[in-house]
Amino acid sequence: xxxxxxxxxxxxxxxxxxxxxxxxxxxxxxxxxxxxxxxxxxxxxxxxxxxxxxxxxxxxxxxxxxxxxxxxxxxxxxxxxxxxxxxxxxxxxxxxxxxxxxxxxxxxxxxxxxxxxxxxxxxxxxxxxxxxxxxxxxxxxxxxxxxxxxxxxxxxxxxxxxxxxxxxxxxxxxxxxxxxxxxxxxxxxxxxxxxxxxxxxxxxxxxxxxxxxxxxxxxxxxxxxxxxxxxxxxxxxxxxxxxxxxxxxxxxxxx
Length: 255
What we know:
- By secondary structure, the chain is an alpha/beta fold.
- The chain is built from six helices and ten strands.
- The chain has a domain at about 1-5 and about 20-30 and about 40-185 and about 240-255: paralog of FGE (formylglycine-generating enzyme).
- It starts with a helix and ends with a strand.
């Protein structure tokens, strides 16, 4: 899909204000996803991840520079016209109900990928995101802590119409990264490879869970409901979809 995206929307590498990256060192961890062609811990190569999700202000700067991604102009094959940036007042005006420092939402996988590519980056893989999001303020892996899990589930319990807070308001984890939990859902580069079996997801049409991915996946840690919810949500999407609580951040290889 990336070659199609680049062919449609060529651009030079650019940087948008406030795009701070944090180094995440290499390591290994046990994913909540069980990979049929890979046993044991997943190996993570060191990388850089944006400290916070991309904001409305940053995405506005992006669409000003690349008008093909503006509301009303983005190709229908890459963004649903009804939902894409639907909360913005117009193509280049956020409006009174949208704050510049709120994370941008209502963006498709294609538009999120384009933003990251425009600054020489990419969306993080699921393993990179999960590896980083497993940390709390003092531990690299807090997933076995019931209190940590409950704090995340508390966010899920909030009504979907609750206004989204500005980025940077949650405490940074041990890597120095914020907002991985408690703010929005986030796109990952390989979201479509999350082939979760139908018995793990209560869907009316099991065929909807079949994507072209590297391997079939199933849930290895069924107790980690907080992370499993993200997997179920992402694996139900198509790349053109956008929702009111789904945004993104970018990743880069280490220099």
